[in-house]
Amino acid sequence: MNTKSTLKAWTAVALASVMAHGAYAQSSGEPVRVIFAGAMNNVPMMVAAENGYWRDQGLDVSVQVLDSGSQIARALVSGAADIGAGAATSTVILSRAAGNKLTLIGPYHNNPMVVNGVERVGVVARKESGLSDQNPADIAGKTVGVTAGSTGESYLRSYLSSIGKTMKDIKMVNLAPPDMGVALRQGTVDVAVPWEPYISEIVRTQGDDVNVVRRGGPFGASVVGIMVTEDYLQEHRDILEKYVLGAWQGVKFTREHPTEAAALAQRYVQGVDQQDATSAIEVMRAEFDPRISVCTEAAILQEQKAQIAAGNMKVSEPIAYDLVVQEGFINDLLQKHPELTSDLAPLPQSVEKCGGHGTN
């Protein structure tokens, strides 16, 4: 855990809460402790907090920002937080495989039109490494910074497969995305696999000193959303319905007002530049979708098989989809609020119609 950056992020959030929503911070509503990473895929949560969507639902939400899904999972399991954000395609399945009963109850950064497709992650190399989009296979033997057990690792594994390489062909270094720019600049790593807004930041600040080897593409799957323990879901379903609804209002706002959403995100993503934040949201715009589909189920199954094969999930068979994702909870709430998705294209009705099907 990057303690320094975490404390800075927590301080920024606390100050933002007091300055922007003093009444909200001292609300008499139902108290809820929320924890998520300071990454651009979590912007809908930031928007919900800043625009008062949870306050309007009668909730008194306090927010803490950490660096990774694994840290958030531990906080939920230990009872240090009530609600967290994470990926069903990594955090939830890895935690469940370790014996913890986490489950996804509300996607908000997810493209239900595809099985494979992650736009927020990329591969960036130091120019001095000699690696570029013209010679991707030269990544072999390079030192690569990536966040272990994350969507970034899944993306990297799939990308390597597409160029005939495996994780064994590289030297992996576990890094948090906020630290990857410095690692590239100092030469600690040859290559980094950050997610937004850090890709945009690295490209803007390091310019000709780095090469973008790949940005986005059909490499792995990412279904990010609200996760809780099964016990919390059973005991606080009414609170969670209000919380998810507020988050989904944040999804719609982010999709429709990317510039404004980026401005709000600056309070939560430590040191992010307005230009980088806006660029990141524009790149990911199609992925701000609260729905699930047959593509979602196929994506989660695919990622479980990959994690099992890699030895990261110590189970013999994939975990049942209905344990990983609360399909009934999600669809019931969406049906009650069609205004949240009325601008979105119809969902595929078969896996064969999903984008990125069969590319992994």
Automatic annotation (TrEMBL):
| One Pfam family from the record | NMT1
Record family assignment: Belongs to the bacterial solute-binding protein SsuA/TauA family.
Q: Which CDD domains match?
A: PBP2_NrtA_SsuA_CpmA_like (cd01008)
The UniProt entry, under SMART domains, shows:
PBPb
What keywords does the record list, in alphabetical order? Answer: Signal
Identification of the protein by name = ABC-type nitrate/sulfonate/bicarbonate transport system substrate-binding protein
Coiled-coil zones = none
**Superkingdom to which the source organism belongs:** Bacteria
- Asked whether the UniProt record includes Iron among its keywords, one would answer no
Task: Please give the organism.
Answer: Rhizobium giardinii
The record ties this protein, via InterPro entries, to:
Solute-binding_3/MltF_N, SsuA/THI5
Query: Where does the UniProt annotation place the signal sequence?
Result: 1-25
User: Which part of the chain is the Solute-binding protein family 3/N-terminal domain?
Assistant: 34-247
